[in-house]
Design goal:
With 183 residues, the chain is an all-alpha fold. The protein is built from six helices and no strands. Bound molecules: fe (ii) ion (2 copies).
């Protein structure tokens, strides 16, 4: 006879959250896929859209690494050379991202900038996954706890990035409510 709580399966999916390294690798795979789509796209509109998505994804990912993952990894693996190189690579990527975000798809340099960013990011991802992550995996860092912190922060950052688009529309009403609050 079937009992009421015979279906205990949902618990498994709720428990199975990716750890910090898995989360970062998933981001890497996602952004590599976006660069691939960019390369294969023939439409300027589509390319423009993809480039903006790539920039947003990379901005959130690098910030998450710099705020939460890198400091923890640095302490856990004690390999300052690897960590410093990663930070320098992020800075170079951010410069390219800032250029791309200001550019129009009509610009002669648009495709080149995105392509170079892609090559750059691929190199950086290889270094993280082949040098940094294996050391972190061997350390005693709690990767599930770290993942929890990263998930919370990621939600905040994705929200902030999304707000930019309608910030202009809400600014006027916000201005009047601020005036009221200050009165
Ligand atoms: Fe990364
Ligand atoms: Fe990184």
């Amino acid at each position: 006879m079937a009992t009421r709580n015979s279906s205990a399966t949902p618990r498994r999916s709720a428990r199975k959250q990716p750890d910090a390294l898995r989360m970062l690798k998933d981001d890497h795979d996602k952004v590599k896929g976006l660069f691939e789509k960019f390369k294969n796209s023939r439409s300027d509109d589509k390319k423009g859209e993809l480039a903006q998505t790539i920039c947003k994804e990379l901005t959130v990912h690098t910030q998450l690494e710099e705020e939460i993952f890198y400091p923890a990894a640095r302490e856990a693996i004690g390999d300052d050379d690897t960590m410093n190189e990663a930070v320098v690579e992020h800075a170079a990527a951010k410069d390219l991202i800032a250029d791309i975000q200001k550019m129009s798809t009509d610009d002669d340099m648009f495709d080149a900038k995105v392509t170079v960013l892609g090559e750059f990011v691929n190199h950086h991802i290889r270094e993280e996954q082949n040098q940094m992550f294996p050391q972190v995996r061997k350390s005693d860092l709690d990767l599930n706890d770290l993942a929890e912190q990263m998930r919370t922060r990621k939600r905040e950052l994705m929200g902030e990035e999304g707000e930019d688009e309608d910030a202009g529309a809400s600014r006027s009403s916000q201005g009047s409510s601020n005036a009221r609050a200050n009165a």
